[in-house]
Write a structure and sequence with these properties.
Layout (H helix, E strand, L loop, with lengths): L1 H19 L18 E5 L7 H5 L25 H8 L29 E3 L14 H4 L6 H21 L3 H4 L12 E5 L2 H7 L4 H24 L4 E5 L8 H5 L15 H24 L4 E5 L1 H10 L16 E3 L2 E3 L4 E4 L2 E4 L19 H13 L20
Parallel strand pairs: 1-2, 1-3, 3-4, 4-5
Antiparallel strand pairs: 6-7, 8-9
Helix pairs in contact: 1-11, 3-12, 7-10, 8-10, 11-12
Length: 397
């Protein structure tokens, strides 16, 4: 029954999207624009703009090929949703907190690190809870949510001190203004890797595991609120069971797939997390009276595209653009491998914009753009407020 209701809800989102496409960027709520001076982002590879690449291993070609024309630390062929959010709010792309050099792509948006309009604390592989394994063992980031929050605290204290002691406007030009921290938009997009790790847990273990995830995320929001944050844009987690990496390598997928070819069990766990997260956001609204909290149903946006891929001009899942499997050997996107004495290179597909999945785990720029247009308008937000008005508290939640 839960899956059926979810399908109906996603179908309704698809209908809404159809008539609302022309409204992108309009103040459909009648509320004034917030004019956010900065964005502070916390998350995993879905919104990492170079943190993990700077800290451990550089991203390689063909990552970044579509828009940046070079690898710039994003797990995609181009822009991520957070990039489109920044564009819509007329802000520069976010520099990664861990990157001391910064992006140098040839589009005039970022040349070197600039934190004047925010910072990105997200890293690929990041989790809400502290990971049990290291990045070298499993690709999991050591920069889990508590560490990202600690980085923000350090960033705020240090930049405020530098700004206040600077002797000229030139010295302050790449530093956030202290007063902007309370006016900024705080985006949280994390939980996918925790859900992936929780799929192997028994039912009774998950009953305690998911509330732990939600409580930890709520605690992060409360901490940021205590630090002066007021406008929060909180993403739930996407349909993990629709990712090629989940479907193609499931041990016995027959009989476990829904009408879109997604793994029911995996998506069911994601939906339970999302349900509890939404309840937590409602509670936070009561606990944090000065905060404007928007719960964004990323799951609905992603599932809507996946379920209607062909009509939207995309190759139907679970196809991925970059990466291949040769004689049982997985060759990751942009990597080389020796398969039966032959060197195999995993290049990208000819037309990434026709694919939803970039590398089996992450999304293409085209898919990210499709999602971003929906979330920016507030079509999948519980209070229906577009992102440009997200500093306003809704009275009709």
């Amino acid at each position: 029954m839960q899956m059926r209701m979810e399908a109906l809800r996603v179908f309704a989102v698809g209908i809404l999207v159809g008539w609302a496409l022309g409204a992108v960027g309009k103040e459909v709520t009648g509320l004034p624009s917030c004019h956010f001076p900065a964005i502070f982002n916390f998350g995993d590879s879905n919104s990492d703009t170079g943190g993990m690449s700077a800290a451990f291993y550089p991203m390689v070609w063909p990552f970044g090929e579509t828009f940046f024309h070079e690898a710039v630390g994003r797990a995609s062929d181009g822009r991520l949703m957070v990039d489109f959010i920044a564009e819509h709010l007329k802000l520069p792309y976010l520099s990664a907190y861990l990157d001391s050099i910064g992006s140098s792509f040839r589009h005039g948006r970022n040349f070197g690190v600039n934190f004047r309009h925010g910072a990105n604390f997200a890293t690929g592989g990041a989790t809400i809870l502290r990971p049990n394994k290291t990045v070298f063992e499993s690709g999991v980031s050591p920069f889990y949510l508590d560490i990202q929050i600690a980085h923000f605290d350090q960033f705020k204290a240090r930049t405020t001190s530098l700004y206040n002691h600077a002797k000229s406007a030139f010295q302050r030009r790449k530093l956030p203004r202290p007063e902007d921290f309370s006016k900024a938009l705080y985006v949280l997009d994390i939980g996918q890797n925790d859900i992936s790790a929780g799929l192997s847990k028994k039912e009774e273990e998950r009953q305690a595991y998911i509330p732990e995830l939600v409580n930890k995320l709520s605690a992060a929001v409360q901490h940021l609120y205590e630090q002066g944050a007021r406008a929060f844009w909180i993403h739930n987690t996407g349909p993990f069971g629709c990712m090629p990496v989940s479907i193609l390598y499931a041990p016995n997928p027959q009989g476990t797939l829904d009408r879109c070819g997604c793994l029911k069990y995996s998506n069911g766990v994601a939906m339970e997390f999302n349900k509890q997260l939404k309840e937590a956001v409602v509670k936070l609204r009561a606990d944090l009276p000065e905060a404007a909290l928007t719960y964004v149903d990323i799951y609905a946006a992603k599932y809507a595209l996946i379920s209607d891929a062909k009509k939207q001009g995309f190759v139907e899942p679970p196809e991925k653009c970059c990466g291949k499997r040769v004689n049982g050997v997985d060759v990751q996107c942009g990597q080389k491998a020796n398969v039966n004495g032959t060197e195999v290179y995993a290049a990208s597909c000819e037309n990434p914009s026709s694919y939803i999945s970039w590398d089996g785990v992450h999304y293409t720029e085209a898919a990210n753009h499709w999602f971003a247009k929906r979330i920016i308008m507030g079509l999948v937000s519980d209070n229906s407020i577009p992102i440009a008005q997200a500093c306003h508290k809704a009275h009709h939640v």
